[in-house]
Amino acid sequence: MSSIGVARAPLSSARTLTFVISIAAFSILMPATACADASTASFAFAAKNYAKALVELKALADQGDANSQYRLGVMYFQGLGVLVDEPLAAKWFEKAAEQGVSEAQAMLGLMYSEGRGVVQNQTQAAAWYRKSAELGNAAAQAALGNLYLNGTGVDQDDTVAAEWYQKAANQGFGGAQFNLGNMYLHGKGVPKDDEQAANWYRKAAEQGNAAAQFNLGNMFFQGTGVPHDEAQASAWYRKAADQGVAEAQFTLGFMYASGRGEPQNQIQAAAWYLKAAEQGNPAAQFSLGLMYDLGTTTPRNDSQAVQWYRKAAEQNNIQAQFNLGNMYFSGRGVMQDDVKAIEWWRKAAEQGVPQAQFNLGVMYSAGRGVPMDSGSAVHWWRKASSQGNSDAKRMLDELAQKGQMQKK
Fold it and tell me: CATH topology of 1-12+245-323 equal to that of 18-25+35-192?
């Protein structure tokens, strides 16, 4: 059989992370207090004397003080000095929201959106987010943008989504800045503008938004909206990687492995691949398998290569599927098994991997792991040849010379 080869090059992750607004971004803000009793409650709250704060706030809330009602909702929502009680939190948030406390309106929108303490109702969520957003609450503006982007509780409208993201982004809300960058990058609701995308990604990235850091790294790596600068790309990938973004960890590994933006260092590459692989990133799993397969940083370890190839292959990584087929064919790290080899090669072949298509043709031609079938052999060789696979072209030429070629 002709050499089966190995898929050697990991695919660099060039995809962008899209549209993330974490509910954790809803800061529990404390509106200013107006009276001495409220100030006493606020001081107790700030000092984490929650037992005293609870007594003071409850008395004021019962008298209709809106800010105290909101604070009381916060205590029950977060379990500050009391057991978490989301229905009771929702009750107090609603009382404050009805009196125009924008933070309470935003929290009530969140609770309806997620069905926390109330029956989930996206229309109600949108209504409360809108009230808060119209009062200038940046988190509510960003959340309302998400609802319009996804058509949740409102009619889907990219333009309106972008308008709300813009309002929140102008107030420095990192999640909205990130999402506005995505809107400009993809031309959703605004004209496509790579420079604006990079500008908003940078604003979010500088506030520590990990997804924006990763996407800004991609912009520098590709030279999209900013000058091509692999050192800058690597610096932003590192910031995102340090925050646990698996795609960034993989890509930083790729930068070290290929010496792009970083001095080439296979040990560093393996370390970052491992971090991403342990989070389930299939490209990193494949890359780590390849390093064990080739003995890049340590003596070759076939069983470890198979382990990581399998994890990636089961997530439909076509390079891993091809290489796992190779391992079964050669009996490296696993018991030799032609049927299993064909199973994995077929998965890769059906997704267009030419060497896998060629290998399937060989197996059908020889009757290894499948019944001998020259028609199927030719079928797969033609597919591989059409993608420039020279081995497949040679096999087809030999059949043609022998007059054994079947018509298409």
Answer: yes
